[in-house]
Amino acid sequence: MGKRRSSSYRNNDFSLLLVPVFFLFLFLDASIDATAASSSSPVNTTQVSIMTELSALVLLSARWNTSDSNPCRWDGVNCSSSKSNSFSVVANLTLSSFSLSNSAIFVPLCSLATLQSLDLSKNSFTNVSHQFFTSSCSMKAGLRSLNLSSNRLATPLGDFSGFPLLEVLDLSFNSFHGDVITQLNSLPNMRSLNLSGNRLVGDVPTGMVLSLEELVLSNNNFSGNIPRALFNYQNLTILDLSQNSLTGDVPDEFFKLPKLRISLLSGNGLSGNIPGSMSNVTSLSRFAANQNNFTGSIPSGITKNVKMLDLSYNSLSGVIPFDILSPVGLETVDLTGNKLEGPIPSTFSLTLYRLRFGGNFLNGTIPGTISDALALSYLELDNNQLIGSIPLELGKCKNLSLLNLASNKFQGPVPDAINKLNKRVVLKLQSNNLDGPIPIVLSDLASLSTLNLSHNSFIGEIPREIGNLLKLSILNLQGNMIHGSIPNSIRLLTSLIELNLGNNYLTGTISMMPVKLSTLLDLSHNNLSGSIPSDIQFLTDLEILDLSYNNLFGEVPTSLSKLQSLTQLVLSYNHFSGSIPMFRQCVDITTTGNPDLTDGTGNNDNTPANDEGLPVEEGVSQIINGHLITMNSIHTSAIDFMKAIEAVSSHKNIFLKTRFCTYYKAMMPNGSAYSVKKLNWSDKIFQIGGQDKFGHELEVLGKLSNSNVMVPLAYVLTEDNAYILYEHVHKGTVFDILHGGRSNVLEWPSRYSIAFGIAQGLTFLHGCTEPVLLLDLSTRTVHFKSMNEPQIGDIELCKIIDPSKSSGSLSTIACTIGYIPPEYAYTMRLTMAGNVYSFGVVLLELLTGKPSVNDGIELAKWALSLSGSPDQKDQILDTRASRTSATVHSQMLSVLNIALSCVALSPDARPKMCKVLRMLFNAK
Ligand SMILES: *[C@@H]1O[C@H](CO)[C@@H](O)[C@H](O)[C@H]1NC(C)=O
Ligand SMILES: *[C@@H]1O[C@H](CO)[C@@H](O)[C@H](O)[C@H]1NC(C)=O
Ligand SMILES: *[C@@H]1O[C@H](CO)[C@@H](O)[C@H](O)[C@H]1NC(C)=O
Ligand SMILES: *[C@@H]1O[C@H](CO)[C@@H](O)[C@H](O)[C@H]1NC(C)=O
Ligand SMILES: *[C@@H]1O[C@H](CO)[C@@H](O)[C@H](O)[C@H]1NC(C)=O
Ligand SMILES: *[C@@H]1O[C@H](CO)[C@@H](O)[C@H](O)[C@H]1NC(C)=O
Ligand SMILES: *[C@@H]1O[C@H](CO)[C@@H](O)[C@H](O)[C@H]1NC(C)=O
């Protein structure tokens, strides 16, 4: 058991690994082993009656087939035959994810004296019954393993004495609070203790039995120094102190822990040198001390034993030890974000597969010996001062799937050899001095999803063969010296969502563009001529269109105004004529420098009446199923599914369209209004996994209750569509209120209360037993119930969208441009830290009054670039709000600091939502 646990532990914690095959069902319930031991021997009758009593309490979840009289065959029940006689007894109970919350079940459980292992993880217990802690609980005598993780236990840690045989105790991911002093001291057989993910404070506990092998205390608020007494636990194999508030130097005594395999100190405020004794522990295979305040140089020999090393985001300086990458068996080294200087070491291990040196002061060239790193799949050397050419030898690293050399001083052409690497998913070479033609063999890279060659000196034409890159989702060639026309083959890039060809010398007309384009089409600053082609109307998901500084002429096609997703249209400095068609109010249009273009914008009508020209939606297919989720009688009596379906048959009822959904207003027979959200079921990225599963997911969400979250009340499934019903509270979205052209400026107290409301909603979602992660959090997905009462919408998307059905990485489907955390470019895992980033962008919008992308620059990047000096920080704020009073100004500065921490480049550096909420509260 110990073995299995630790290997899954390792995988879970390694969130940045490049995962080439994407499968994302974050919330699939851990499936229960349905293999109840069907023992042939009869079951002890006392135990049958205990189990029957228990079943009455567990039946709720309908998981136990009580018509079967042998409880050993029930789901999650394992029996063993008793040694003393021929009867079977219950040995293990695995009731994980059984939707249990009634602590009354501890009464029958306590009489199961034969129990060895009890797993109640992933339920909703808020407390453990008193009996559990008394000596009358006979179950405790034989129990070896107790798992209460992922519940809602929100008490101080009780006294766990009286489990003479207990070896494994997992209390992780609850809300235990207070300190840990003696509560775990009387467990003489304990091998593994996991308290991760609680709210524990005070010193790191050191009173447990000295034979302890696994100690996991991460994600709490333990403070003070790392106690020397920890080094008396000479049998420790796992020590995880990450994500706490520990400070001070780390005792250099790791040689006293000769069996240590995993040592994690990440995300604290530790300082001083990286302990050199780490290199003396021969069993140590993983060491992470990232995100602290470590200084000094990297001790030599640190990778002698360690196979996975993460020292990123500290203040380490000096030269990288010359032999750090050479040991056989080495797997990953991450030194991102330090102050390291000098050359890249030139001896590479055959087994190294992940190397991150970005954001340092490294100089010199990439050594040709990199070809020895045959396993290398992930190489990041960006933001250094590296020179020379991209070495041919990189072409030997056949497994390379991410290569990021951006923002260095590389020059010369891209060697053909490196373009033949067909596992490559992400290639970022921007902001160097590379030249020569765009390498035509790039078209051999069939799996390429991101190609960024911007801000170099590439010449020649865009090769026709670019159309072979069928998985490409982001293509950025901005700021080069590319000429010729845009090849027609570009339309073949059916996965492309972002295309930036700005600032080149392109000529000819605008050819047909790939219809999936959604985040950006930038053709600005070229010499394109002709008119805007009418087929631009097919780019229905396009958000930003920039055609400025070209020689385009003719009328602006009215079909452009039908693009429901468009938020920004830049037409300046061309030769357009006629009048500007009517756009929705929230579209930001720039037309300066077109003398013949008359301003036709008057009373823009933002209502869907604009849709009149569109064909009425085809007849609604027959209802398959209407389901109520809510039990609130106000809703159950009002909702009429036929009325909901009638409402969605007319475009007139549309009041909002977002990336994945269309919202309709439906009037019920009793006169109350409901919002009906249509999901386009036939879109292939919706992976509903059967209608039952869809219903189940929605019903789980329907039980959530928080005034800042839009909770589903009911749903209807038809053959082609899924419709979800909500209370109709639509007073616009945060986006409408901030950027919708309201005449009066939103004052700071309102903005603050909006921020606070969203933070409360998100903290709630992240704090659920099974946290709900948002696929798309932006000012457009937050609706107002009333002014100052924001509600987060689209909470179900993460459960029903399968990114693997889309192209490329998570960033191509998750979120709206401007809100996408940088790490989503190479991971398929939605994370809380990713949501925190998006929330940070929402905060920045409230602070600046600017949209998430402004002039093609992401708000978060812009704000980060100005965050260095106090003077500049001031410039970030919306002066219309910040100049109203000194108090407002200082509040806004405090909130700005919170926003900046949320949009930190490193996911580890971002605070968790509960902390964000606290900081926001304190900022008032
Ligand atoms: C059944 O188990 C109980 C303890 O739970 C024990 O006292 C009793 O003797 C057992 N009965 C039989 C028939 O084995
Ligand atoms: C429940 O158990 C009874 C009796 O063993 C059996 O006939 C029936 O098929 C079981 N039902 C399910 C759904 O497994
Ligand atoms: C009970 O679980 C333990 C691990 O906790 C395992 O070793 C044992 O085989 C299980 N017993 C049965 C009867 O499944
Ligand atoms: C460590 O484990 C060994 C072997 O199991 C045991 O002999 C020793 O007593 C343990 N050390 C401590 C401090 O418990
Ligand atoms: C690191 O140290 C600096 C000053 O020594 C301090 O301002 C900063 O808060 C520390 N960072 C962390 C993460 O503790
Ligand atoms: C590590 O071990 C070597 C001998 O193998 C010893 O000389 C050195 O002092 C040890 N270093 C630390 C920091 O314990
Ligand atoms: C690299 O930087 C170091 C100082 O950090 C300097 O001494 C050395 O000459 C530089 N090497 C190259 C090749 O620029």
UniProtKB/TrEMBL annotation:
It comes from the Eukaryota. InterPro entries: Leu-rich_rpt, Leu-rich_rpt_typical-subtyp, LRR_N_plant-typ, Plant_LRR-RLKs, Prot_kinase_dom, Ser-Thr/Tyr_kinase_cat_dom. Residues 1-37 form the signal peptide. It is a single-pass type I membrane protein. PROSITE patterns: LRR, PROTEIN_KINASE_DOM. One of its GO terms (molecular function) is ATP binding. Its main location: membrane. It is an enzyme of class 2 (transferase). This is non-specific serine/threonine protein kinase.
